[in-house]
Amino acid sequence: DAGVIQSPRHEVTEMGQEVTLRCKPISGHNSLFWYRQTMMRGLELLIYFNNNVPIDDSGMPEDRFSAKMPNASFSTLKIQPSEPRDSAVYFCASSAMAIGLAGGGANVLTFGAGSRLTVL
Amino acid sequence: AQSVTQLGSHVSVSEGALVLLRCNYSSSVPPYLFWYVQYPNQGLQLLLKYTSAATLVKGINGFEAEFKKSETSFHLTKPSAHMSDAAEYFCAVSDRRYSSASKIIFGSGTRLSIRP
Fold first, then answer.
1. What SS3 state is found at B84?
2. B94 contacts in chain A (CB < 8 Å)
3. Where are the beta strands (DSSP E) in chain A?
4. Residues of chain B found within 8 Å of residue A38, distances taken between Cβ atoms
5. How do residues A101-111 score in pLDDT, each as one tens digit?
6. What pLDDT was estimated at residue B97?
7. What are A51-90's pLDDT values in tens digits?
8. Nearest-CA residue of chain A relative to B47?
9. Closest residue on chain A to B35 (Cα)
10. Residues in chain A within 8 Å Cβ distance of B36
């Protein structure tokens, strides 16, 4: 397996432009997470999906951010319009939830290499 | 709400010395706990995980961590540091909901430097 694939790896854009980040999770994984990493705020969970359904988007900063997962092999994180404070590394991670174990399963995340976004 | 606190944003040790990275958790239910490592310009990789099978958990690259409920701690250790251990280390927690994906919350990270 090629692992979690994110694109683009680097994006430089101007304030006000739309940004779309893409993620292909590991085949067979049924949970997908979007994180944002900055020096000031560390690693923040933005949103996560289970079986393509958004479970918790309470970490999405504001309405400018949206995420979709139209099928099990693809997810997007969109920022419109982008602002300089959105500059960060955005990580996608996927996991195979071990359903059926007493007390639930432990999500072990496999991360992509990240998309470094710079908004000028 | 669950959370983890990592004490010390930067730890520096000499090559061959003991590595100790501290993590304390807060959770209303027995948690799952994890340590991840991030090398420069890469995503995070799992080092080890605690799921209640054993309180002392061994991971990759010679690292291990011990779950101590009385201290709400999950500190990461390695007996002898190697130059290749230089990286950022993250402690993480998730809860034990049955049949559903759970949030995984990360600590602020500890940067480990190794002195020759």
1. helix
2. 106-107
3. 5-7, 10-13, 19-24, 31-38, 42-50, 53-56, 65-71, 74-79, 88-95, 110-111, 115-119
4. none
5. 444 456 788 99
6. 57
7. 999 988 999 988 999 999 999 999 999 999 999 999 999 9
8. A108
9. A108
10. 109
